[in-house]
Design goal:
The protein is α+β, with helices and mostly antiparallel strands and about 250 residues long. The chain has three domains: about 40 residues; about 60 residues; about 100 residues, Alpha-Beta Plaits. About 35% of the residues lie in helices and about 30% in strands. It has five helices and nine strands; from the N terminus they run αββββαβαβαβαββ. The strands form three sheets. A four-stranded antiparallel β-sheet has the order 5-6-2-7. The protein has a three-stranded antiparallel β-sheet with strand order 1-9-8. A two-stranded antiparallel ribbon has the order 3-4. Strand 3 and strand 4 form a beta hairpin. It is elongated. The two termini are about 65 Å apart. The relative contact order is 0.20.
Length: about 250
C-alpha cells in the first residue's frame, strides 16, 4: 500500500469518528432536553385539598388604662381629694390583688405643672393615666372597687393577647395539614386509588378573630356613692388556620 492510500484511509477513519462524536453529542442534548421537558410537564395524577383547624382561647394578657383625677368634695375647693391619695389607693389595691408592681406603669400625666397651675388656679385638678397588665378581669374589678369611685375618671381595655399563641398556631397548622391528608385519603380511596406522597404544601396564613369588649368606663360624678363596677363582656379569641396540600395519586 502506497503512502497516499494509507493517508486517505486515516482521513476517512478520522472523519467517521468526528461524525459519531457529533451524533453522540446531539443524542445527549436531545436526552437532556426530553428529561427537562418531562420535569416541567408533571404527568403524575394529583389531588389538591384544603385542611382547616380552629379553636377558641380566653385571653390571659389584658392591658387596661386607668385614669385618676382629683376632685372637690361637695364642690368645696378646700376639701380636695388629691392625686397622691388616689394613687396610694391604686397601689394598695394592686398589692392586695396579688399583681406585681411592674405591671402598673404611668401612661401620661397632666400634673407635671401642678405647682404652677395651683398658683394660677386654686381649683386646678391634677390627673394621671396608668396602664395595668392583668390576667384576670375579676382582679381588675377588685382593684376598681378599692379606689375612691369619684377619683376614677375612666377605665378602658386597651389590648389583649394570649401567652401561648405561637405554640397554639403551630399545633393548629399541624392539625390543618393532617385534616387535608385525611380528606385527600377518603376522596382518593372512594375511587379505588391510593394516596401517595405529598407534593406541595402551602400555608393559608393566620386568621385570628379578636374579641370585642363592651367599653368599660366609669365617669366621676358628684355623689357620695357609686354603683359597683359592671361585669365585662368577656369573649374569646378565635383562631382558624387553613393549609393547602397537593398529594400524588398512586
Amino acid at each position: 500500500m502506497d503512502l497516499a492510500r494509507y493517508l486517505h484511509l486515516i482521513y476517512e477513519h478520522t472523519k467517521k469518528i468526528e461524525i459519531m462524536k457529533r451524533l453522540f453529542a446531539i443524542a445527549l442534548v436531545a436526552l437532556f432536553s426530553l428529561n427537562a421537558f418531562a420535569q416541567q410537564v408533571d404527568l403524575r395524577k394529583k389531588i389538591n385539598v384544603n385542611g382547616t383547624a380552629e379553636t377558641e382561647v380566653t385571653p390571659d394578657i389584658i392591658y387596661i388604662s386607668i385614669s385618676l383625677k382629683e376632685y372637690l368634695k361637695d364642690g368645696n375647693s378646700k376639701k380636695k381629694v388629691d392625686i397622691t391619695t388616689l394613687e396610694s389607693q391604686l397601689y394598695t389595691a394592686i398589692q392586695k390583688a396579688g399583681i406585681a408592681k411592674e405591671n402598673l406603669t404611668i401612661n401620661n400625666l397632666s400634673s407635671w405643672s401642678y405647682a404652677t397651675e395651683k398658683k394660677k388656679n386654686p381649683d386646678f385638678l391634677a390627673s394621671k393615666q396608668y396602664r395595668l397588665k392583668v390576667s384576670d378581669l375579676n382582679k381588675f374589678n377588685q382593684i376598681v372597687d378599692a379606689i375612691d369611685a369619684k377619683g376614677i375618671a375612666s377605665t378602658n381595655i386597651e389590648s389583649y393577647d394570649y401567652s401561648k399563641i405561637e405554640s397554639l398556631k403551630k399545633e393548629l397548622k399541624i392539625k390543618a395539614l393532617l385534616a387535608a391528608k385525611e380528606k385527600a385519603t377518603y376522596m382518593v380511596e372512594a375511587l379505588g386509588d391510593k394516596l401517595g406522597n405529598v407534593i406541595d404544601i402551602q400555608d393559608g396564613g393566620d386568621n385570628m378573630v379578636q374579641p370585642v369588649y363592651r367599653n368599660y368606663a366609669m365617669k366621676s360624678m358628684a355623689m357620695d356613692t357609686m354603683e359597683a363596677a359592671p361585669e365585662i363582656d368577656f369573649k374569646k379569641i378565635k383562631l382558624s388556620f387553613t393549609v393547602n396540600a397537593v398529594f400524588e395519586i398512586k
